[in-house]
Amino acid sequence: MTLLLASCGCVLAATFVAFLPMRYQYAPGIVLLLAAPVLIYLIGREVALWAGIAAGLAFLSMFRKPLRYFARRAMGLPVEVPK
C-alpha cells in the first residue's frame, strides 16, 4: 500500500510540476527524474514485471525531452536550453 501511495504521489507531483513555468521546473524535475527509477524498480519487484515495464514506458514518455537533453550533453553534442 505504501508503494502505491508513493507511486501515485510521484505521478501527481510530476503533473503539478508540469504546470509550473519552465524556470521553476528544473529543481523539482531533477528530483522526480532521480526518484522515478527507484519507484519503477520497486513496482517491478513487488507487483509484477509487466507493471514495472509499463511504469518504465510511462517514465520514458513523460521525461523524453529531459532524458534526450542529458544524453546529448553526455555525448558532447550541442544542446538547446529551453527559454
Write a compact overview of the structure shown.
The chain has 83 residues and is mainly α. The chain has one domain (2-74). The protein has four helices and no strands.
Write out key terms for the chains shown:
mainly alpha, 83 residues
**What is the percentage of strand-forming residues?**
under 5%
Radius of gyration, rounded? 14 Å
* H/E topology pattern: HHHH
Tally of individual domains:
1
Biggest sheet architecture = none
How far apart, in Å, are the first and last alpha carbons?
Answer: 40 Å
Number of strands: 0
Percent of residues in helices comes to over 70%
- Count of helices? 4
Principal-axes geometry comes out as globular
Low-confidence stretches: none
What's the mean pLDDT score? 88
Structural class: mainly alpha
